[in-house]
Give the backbone structure.
Amino acid sequence: MRGHHLIQPADASPVEEVVAHLALQIGRLLLANGADTEQAMNAVVSFAAAFGCEAHLAVSYEALILTVVAGDNFRTKIGHRLPGMNVGMTVIEAVDGVIEAAACGRLSLPEARAALDAIEHAPPVYPRWAVMAALGVTAASLSRLFGGDWGSVAVAGVAGAAATWPRLAFAAHGVNPVLAAFAVALAGGAIGGVGVHLGVTASAALCLVAPAMILVPGVPLINGVQDIIRGHATLGVSRLGFAAAVVAAIAIGLFAATMLTGVRIPVAGPTIVAGAAQDAVFSALAAAGFAVLFGVPVRMAWGCVICGVASHTSRTLLFGAGIDLITGTLIGSLAAGFLAWLLTRRFHAPQAAFAFPGVVALVPGAYAFRAVIGSLAIAHGTAGPALISQTLSLALSAVLMIAGIAVGVAAPALLPRRDRSGAGQRRSPQLMLSRNPRSGDT
């Protein structure tokens, strides 16, 4: 594996080397594709136990440190974690399948290696044009969900789809994600600003904000809070810091777009929500778009749609009943989290495959953007007391809503989970290294 350094005791056996290599590959694949720290650590431990080894994984933002022990032998490896913003639920599901098969004794180590290599080098689930179209629909849906007129829906859809092309190109070429977020937000905002000047909408700000909202790093934000809740504070803070830097870059890109196009994004403004029926329709479309972006398999995409409608529409109904958005966000996230937990039992897929697309539309990107723009005005000394108060309120609301989303998604972790204790049964590593499960050998 590239970027790995090996500490090899003299008496280590080849089996520990193979298990350590593959377990570290599993951890890297999961973390690079949106899994939380707890999921990655449990996966590594389960995989190693399936081959009679004990694994200890330490995760930091810069590196993974793995020690695999079998009897008196051990192997330690250090691998660089990829801190990118990629989310690939198909990869997570496939890796989970490899671990399940190994735990049940259906995979030898060479077969596990081949399966993991195939997962790592598999092409994207959806072609680029499909992702562009899906995110265009998502941006248009978000504009309508936040009270935009039909003109802003059209402009946001075009801007969101067009800005997705450089977003995917930057990701494919390894461009720094913070710099990429700034450039894509600027491009999407500029395209939205051109649409505003065509005179087709009265909801000018949403033509810039809605395309930028599909850039919000919802998964790192949610995973960061979950890591802190579950005791992985160092990585959680790192993820939150990375996500905050990306949000700031998006907001600065939007600010540059306002300077370029002359379209103003106000910091203060009323909270506008769509009616329940429209909310359900456009929440479903937004969740479907995120499902495509996150690489959720087609056979599971309807589950994402259900989670998205349950989370966002329930928040809208609660808001209409007088419940504040922060409490409504928590309740909506709990609904999506427990629905996702039920769907995982049906599909035997990771909960994240359903929960993340279902709640990402709840992430308060517009609040965060307006807070950053207000902060820029404060830094320039042009803000009065009202603007300062509004900026602080937006920032605090964004933090509390993100925390509510993370708690809602993480809540099902308190419920009993499938036990992979069978993976911990001691098998002979030498046999598992070479046996073919289809041959009937034991």
